[in-house]
Design a protein that fits this description.
Radius of gyration: 25 Å
Bound molecules: beta-D-glucopyranose
Mean pLDDT: 93
Structural class: alpha/beta
Low-confidence stretches: 1-5, 17-29
Order of helices and strands: HEHEHEHEEHEHEHHHEHEHEHEEEH
Helix content: 40-55%
């Protein structure tokens, strides 16, 4: 009898120890090894990234959690703090605002967490270990080159639009585009229709960050399709007939390209337009098939996700991730892995986006 009671005490004690251990290790399911923070669910680009992360992680042995910042740096900081409290060892983050995100990653760094900037660089801080990215200068250069290749004669009206100045990529895209467009503005192939700042700098092959900022300040869309619509309408109202006819439009990404294209398409004095984009969003693939958007720059998110997760796993395993170069973020040279991009227009859309398995043919109409 006495022995039985002792046995029961031992059993209760053992159960208590197990419960305490489970709580410490986060065995209730709250422990996460890799935290992923993405800027917003409002743009298909980032929902696409979420899906590609989920696909890649389906059979991973590591636990991950993806949180969205909904366009707010405060929410982003909160997300990082939530993930820190869940015990993450690696943070993968595409910042909402590259400079404002410094505070969030510094909080992670203080906890010994490795920080990987994803697609967008975090600027003005030492608290960043790696950067996985597409070749963003090449994105802009491809957009500019497409406009050049599709322009005939001289004095072609050129409308310039850019991304948000809080996003380092917006500078890189514009810098890349300017590197090829500037000589063609200087030689009279194009005439800038909508930016006095760009017009004032048209003889300068290489722009400083401040000069780029001046142009962006005038032609930014803030990555917002509605703001892009407003700007395009204002521009078309302001110009004379000589800035209409056959026009060329540098649009920074697909979301803004579609709304800008809609504005130009509805102006009877615009007889044709060539417009760029990037991201190969499904809606823009359909616009390209329908002849409403000219091109997109395909950034295969599957590669970026694999690179980011590969780096995270290397870090968790205690090995050093492979990198291909560095990006200066204003404070340090950040070790980076960079991925190439592919230009897609109606001629290769099937090969690049369908045959590669990125999208299903059944998701589109009118595909040949
Ligand atoms: C990304 C683009 C995206 C844009 C707006 C950029 O930083 O590189 O792919 O279209 O942000 O979200």
């Amino acid at each position: 009898m006495k022995k039985g009671f002792k046995g029961l005490t031992y059993l209760l004690f053992a159960i208590m120890v197990m419960l305490v251990l489970a709580a410490c290790s986060g065995g209730s399911g709250s422990s996460v090894s890799v935290g992923i923070v993405l800027p917003t669910k409002d743009e298909p680009r980032w929902v696409q990234d979420e899906q590609r992360f989920k696909d890649a992680l389906a059979d991973s042995e590591y636990t991950t959690e993806i949180l969205f910042s909904q366009g707010s740096s405060a929410k982003e900081k909160e997300n990082v703090e939530t993930l820190i409290s869940k015990g993450i060892e690696v943070l993968i983050i595409a910042p909402q605002d590259g400079a404002a995100a410094g505070a969030a990653v510094e909080a992670a760094k203080e906890e010994g967490i490795a920080v990987i900037a994803y697609d967008r660089l975090i600027t003005g801080t030492d608290a960043i270990d790696y950067y996985v990215t597409f070749d963003s200068i090449a994105v802009g250069a491809a957009q500019g080159q497409y406009l050049i290749d599709n322009a005939e004669g001289t004095n072609n009206p050129l409308y310039l639009y850019a991304g948000a100045a809080s996003d380092n990529n917006a500078f890189l895209f514009f810098e890349g585009a300017w590197s090829v467009l500037q000589p063609k503005i200087a030689d009279g192939t194009f005439v800038i229709a909508n930016s006095s700042e760009a017009e004032a700098l048209k003889d300068k092959a290489e722009l400083t960050r401040e000069e780029l900022g001046q142009i962006l300040g005038q032609v930014t869309t803030n990555w917002d399709p509605a703001e892009a619509t407003n700007k395009a309408e204002t521009h078309l109202t302001a110009v004379g007939a000589d800035m209409k006819g056959d026009v060329s439009i540098l649009a920074p990404n697909d979301g803004t390209a579609r709304t800008i294209a809609d504005v130009f398409a509805s102006d009877p004095a615009v007889s044709s337009y060539v417009i760029t984009g990037q991201d190969a969003e499904k809606a823009s693939a359909q616009y390209i098939i329908d002849g409403k958007q000219s091109m997109t720059v395909f950034k295969d998110v599957r590669t970026l996700v694999n690179d980011a997760m590969g780096m995270a796993v290397d870090i968790l395993d205690g090995s050093t991730p492979e990198t291909t170069g560095t990006y200066n973020n204003g404070n340090i040279d950040v070790k980076a892995k960079q991925t190439d991009v592919i230009v897609v227009d109606k001629n290769n859309i099937k090969a690049e986006l369908i045959d590669s398995g990125y999208y299903e043919a059944s998701e589109f109409t009118g595909l040949e």
